[in-house]
Amino acid sequence: AQKVTQAQTEISVVEKEDVTLDCVYETRDTTYYLFWYKQPPSGELVFLIRRNSFDEQNEISGRYSWNFQKSTSSFNFTITASQVVDSAVYFCALSEHTGNQFYFGTGTSLTVIP
Amino acid sequence: DAGVTQSPTHLIKTRGQHVTLRCSPISGHKSVSWYQQVLGQGPQFIFQYYEKEERGRGNFPDRFSARQFPNYSSELNVNALLLGDSALYLCASSLSAGTNNGEQYFGPGTRLTVT
Fold first, then answer.
1. Which positions in chain B touch A24 (Cβ < 8 Å)?
2. Strand pairing category for A108-113 and A10-14
3. What is the mean pLDDT of chain B?
4. What are phi and psi for residue B85, nearest 5 degrees?
5. Is the dihedral angle over the CA atoms B94, B12, B77, A96 positive or is it negative?
6. What CA–CA distance (Å, rounded) separates B78 from B94?
7. pLDDT at A1
């Protein structure tokens, strides 16, 4: 079973629009960690955020914000006032306390049109 | 400080050949993980090594093997290459085994093409 689902394959927005990338996860562990990574065309995965399962506070970092809701097993990512440089593939990932690996979603390709 | 480095950047091999990919973790990091990312998909976990021991293995055939050296660098070996092994191979380093101690830092990857 897919542990991380990113239903949006591709999204296009016009510059300065807000955009939300969805992530739904599945785990039986009570302790787990959620991540978002950005993958620009160069290929290197860039860490954006890490959240543990006991911290449901939403977080804001500049134009980025994350909404973690355990009740719906979702960890959504919003970019406010998008910019062309935000164009990339974004991956949501899950790691379980008992495990040693990340489970990645299939990614959402975001294109910001100038 | 240098990030995670991988070599080579690109590689073209023929079916049936073998390949060795290399990874140097961030200084001070003792754990290295390998991932395969097929075009259009998310990375898939292959191995994790910590202190030169295998700590985790994903659902990959025995043609895939890896090892970690005393300086914590790592090699990923793939034997009897198949066309389906064409992918971006990513290496990630972290301070310790398990992902609960922090994020994994990824290298730029090695793009392997099998013809």
1. none
2. parallel
3. 92
4. -85, -5
5. positive
6. 23
7. 59
Q: Measuring CA to CA, which residue among A17, A37, A86 is closest to residue B106?
A: A37
Using CA atoms, how far residue B49 sits from A46, A98, B8, in Å, is: 21, 16, 20
Q: What is the pLDDT of residue B27?
A: 93
Indicate whether B30 pLDDT > 60: yes
Query: Does residue A53 sit at the B interface (CB-CB below 8 Å)?
Result: no
Residues in chain A within 8 Å Cβ distance of B30: none
The residue whose two tokens read 């134009």 is A63
Is-cis flag, bond preceding B8, omega within 30?
yes
Q: pLDDT digits over A50-68, tens only?
A: 888 988 888 888 999 999 9
In this predicted structure, what is the pLDDT of residue B100? 56
Task: Give me the residue from B41, B48, B105 closest to A101, CB to CB.
Answer: B48
CB B90 within 8 A of CB A45: yes
Strand B110-114 to B10-13 pairing? parallel
Paired tokens of B110: 């090695």
